[in-house]
Amino acid sequence: MTRLFRSSGPRPGRHLLALGLLAGLPITAHAQTTSGSNDTAAPAVLPTLQVTAPAATGTPTVPSVADQKAAIEQTAGSVGFIDAETFKQRFATNMRDMLQDAPGVYVQNRYGQEVRLSVRGSGISRAYHTRGIEILQDGIPMNLADGSGSFYQVDPEALQAIEIYKGGNGLSYGSTTLGGAINFVTPSAYTAVAPNIASLSGGGYGTVQGSAQVSRVVGDTDFLGNVTLRHADGFRDHEEGNYAQVNLNAGYRPRAGLETRFYFGSYNVDQKLPGTLTLNQALGAPRMAASTALSGDQARVEHVQRLANKTSWLADDGQLDVAVWAIHKSLFHPIFQVIDQDGWTYGIAPRWTGNYTIGGNRNDLILGARATAGNNDARQFTNVSGSRGSQTLSAEQDARNYEAYAENRYYFLPDVALMTGAKLFRSERDYSNFTAGGESSRDYDGINPKLGLLWEPRKNIQAFIDVTRSQDVPDFSDLVQSGFSSTRFVPLDAQKAWTLETGTRGRYERFGWDVTAYHSRIDGEMLQFTTNSSIPASTFNAGHTIHQGIEFGGSVRLADDLSGPQSGDSVTLSQLWNWSDFRFDGDAQYGDNRIPGIPQTVLRTVIRYARADGIYVAPALDWVPDGAFVDYANTQKTPSYALIGVTAGIDLPNGVSLFAEGRNLADKRYITDFGPVTTASASTATFYPGDGRTIYGGMRVRF
């Protein structure tokens, strides 16, 4: 029988008061109307695109894009914001397509919708899925109860905007992992750019994608439905993928300031896996599949259903949101063995955001709590050409989490805010191995504080400095390891870190920027190494490690009115620079070696010409001047590379948009990603080759 919660569900009022007292936050105050959010600058999001959609009015459950941007800019720390209309002007099918222009976010394609996603080195050595980043949709967690997650439930065609909370800045939603949180926001009928939207796109390697969206407001009720279907044969052999994603929401407003909204999602994946290659194979014959992938017909067949509700009550001095959700996931995953899993995740999360005056000064407060639980029936079988053979494992994985958090921003000067915050948590992991007999468990708890300053010296310019503590709790992929004679539970420690960051963001005349420097000192970083080409990596707690770097995004409008006075055309140069220095700190085995997985320098340059009549063209250069270390011994690096691409299109006044995009136009052979190993050799098969030259095109109709 599934155990949900060992105690009764959280009471919003009691948790809010307790958290306020815990963080030393003054709760008793007088309400005021906050208008300062309209006077701050958006973080530089690259490239800067002209969005022609009309402004939409949001509601308590789904704010407008402008309101979202204004709210996230009040964070005393490094954050990012992306209007979804920007990446809908090009071919978008996965996380790379959506996040490639966000400073501080490292994202690389592997195959299909599978990518490497890392912020500040989160999950740096994990060669599959995600660790250290909380994935949210509409502010509601998409991760499973143990913290694990994949990228297959986020549909670019179904989004309104993306909020990026790097590192400890994810505290705004209760996240205190090293990488932070990314919130993917879907539209409602009130914020959709049009009542009806249809798109069709496709291109190289048998790729075709179609999407349709319908939304209506009927009295006090509204609804929106979005369906996306995509198929791709893939650049490599044995890479065929089929995806069907459905996102529905319906809202009801019985009176002003009160709204409830139901969400339903269905995400179906049938993705063949091409496997990893040796370096010579990946560069010499990049379209081949690994022999183990072919013989085992390796694949990922995943079906996820998500049902959630968010109810929002708007009061004079703030807003209370209460979210509840349930996620069902079934997985058939033939790799080194056939992984066959079926599980549920449940959760509830009240959250209060309030605006007050204290001693005549502005004060913004966030209080929240989350309780999540889940169970997973985990079975494994020998892989017989992609089918189940004899059963090798029958187990149950149970996870429970109890969290309470607070964040306060007190403007002790009109242009300077002190931010304080903390999160208390307890996480419980229980594992029952019915095959071998026996039960194992590990509990984690702690407090993660945050302290920072936000300075707004003038309109549209901000500077900040803050220090935060993070703790990453192992998921069951870490705790249950198969790199032994049998599958067993390994009671890893939580990964703990202190991070100091400072930066500035803003706009001034022709310039826009978003720059952050950070330094993290980590104790017990969870690292992996590949035991062989088809077995998931084993995980261990390292000693002391350091993650530090610079996240730079900047843009400058080089020229205006090139075609003549008041013509409205412009040329904008955008630059992304992520510098990452991740290393051991006096490790007994590896000394001060760099941690493998991510290149030290990643550059992206985009020059965009746009006209007032909707025509635009944007050539781009993606450059990795020095490859990443492949192994902990630091004996091998991936080759450097530069990729040339271009996007062009037109937004017609009748609601029709057309685009064409070329990627890797020079047909460069390169390594897009790999799984780190202890010591690399010529026979090490851990590399994913990048796609060759690809051309895409598409059309979008709004009416």
TrEMBL record:
Q: Which UniProt keywords apply?
A: Cell outer membrane, Membrane, Receptor, Signal, TonB box, Transmembrane, Transmembrane beta strand, Transport
Which InterPro entries is this protein grouped with?
Answer: Beta-barrel_TonB, Beta-barrel_TonB_sf, Plug_dom, Plug_dom_sf, TonB-dep_rcpt-like
Domain TonB-dependent receptor plug, residue spans: 73-181
The segment(s) forming the TonB-dependent receptor-like beta-barrel domain are: 336-665
For this protein, the record's Pfam families field holds: Plug, TonB_dep_Rec_b-barrel
Where does this protein chiefly localize?
Answer: membrane
Topology versus the membrane? Multi-pass membrane protein
Subcellular location(s): the record lists: Cell outer membrane
- Show which residues constitute the signal peptide: 1-31
State the similarity comment. Answer: Belongs to the TonB-dependent receptor family.
Q: What is this protein called?
A: TonB-dependent receptor family protein
UniProt lineage: Bacteria, Pseudomonadati, Pseudomonadota, Alphaproteobacteria, Rhodospirillales
